[in-house]
Amino acid sequence: MFFTSLGLAGTALTLPGTLELAALTLGSVLPREPRRGDPARCGKLAVVVPAHDEEGGIATCVRSLLACEAPPNGARIVVIADNCSDATAARAREAGAEVIERQDRERRGKGYALEMAFAHVLADPDVEAVLVVDADTEVAPGFLVAMATAFGGGADGVQSRYLVANPEAGPKARLMNVAFLAFNVARPRARERFGLSVGILGNGFGLHRRVLDVLPYTARSVVEDLEYHLMLVRKGFAIRFVEETFVRADMPTSEEGIDTQRARWEGGRFRMIREHVPPLLREVLAGNRTMLEPLGELLLLPLATHVGTLLCVLVIPFPPTQLYAAGALGLVGAHVLSALYVGGGTAEDVSALARAPLYVAQKAMKLPSLLRASRKDQAWVRTARDPRPAATAG
Fold this sequence. Notes:
Blueprint: H1 2-28, E1 44-51, H2 58-66, E2 75-82, H3 88-95, E3 98-102, H4 110-122, E4 127-132, E5 137-139, H5 143-152, E6 157-164, H6 171-193, E7 205-208, H7 209-214, H8 224-234, E8 239-249, H9 255-285, H10 292-299, H11 303-315, H12 319-343, H13 347-352, H14 356-365, H15 367-372
Parallel strand pairs: 1-2, 1-4, 2-3, 6-8
Antiparallel strand pairs: 4-7, 5-8, 6-7
Helix pairs in contact: 1-6, 1-10, 1-11, 1-12, 2-3, 6-12, 9-10, 11-12, 11-14
């Protein structure tokens, strides 16, 4: 009876995520029907770059944006230097960006910076939509035109592919690249195929003025993108996946950087699960089917946690749940392979999967720190960057 209860509990915890993963795996490989749009029908774009102590990379980001093919009605590049103690603002100006400087030691975090920057750029009546690009990011040459095309086709919001720029930096960066292909390419691709809002990934996304007029950017958690997307879907808006363009950013390779980033992303996600699953479940049971997929997304635990839980179910001596766990683990494998296929994975990415069991074990050991990061009062902490020299205008 004890083992039966444990097996059923593990099954109940993972079954919603398994069903979500099955749908996303199928959707990711469905053929694509391209959407049409005219970039000339989109007014001026504004690109907001939130930056906190980013003097080493901000110039590279700004130059990448300025080197893009210009959309028909132009674009403003605006860096918001948020609570900076270095030369971020100066390096951004030298590179050619407009710069806003913000100092507020009480109201800290990316959400506050974006709220201020959005208000600033939307004061310009010619700006029709706002894009967000992180300060450690480079963008594809056609990024601005592709986003303007989607807005010209009527999109409320847009999300490009968000890729790893340095997968060759080491085994952990390579494994992170596989995770990004799954989370940032295959899953939004699937949601796009099903006609759903694809989500906001925090980098390389954009919002139309009409959305921000109705729903100001007031998300405050350390995963403000996930929080805001739930608010957006409740209001009847949707984010489209602009698969033909991308942004890419370096992933940290130091233990400190990896741990900080993982705690912020996954700890924040655990907080969203705790706070938002009960009300979402009530909404779905009351007949609001638009919230069913966001609920499924939240119930799908971070993939390493999902796999670790399934492995526990697999070793519990209760055959029905063991059979379920074996099938669910096979589905995880299919999901990763489909992500490598649609995301353009390489042989090196496939080889990196050999380290996945070690990664799952390490994640299990760090679960207490992830749960601490899920507290409501958890402050936003900048990811430690790998050392590099400060850039100049050049």
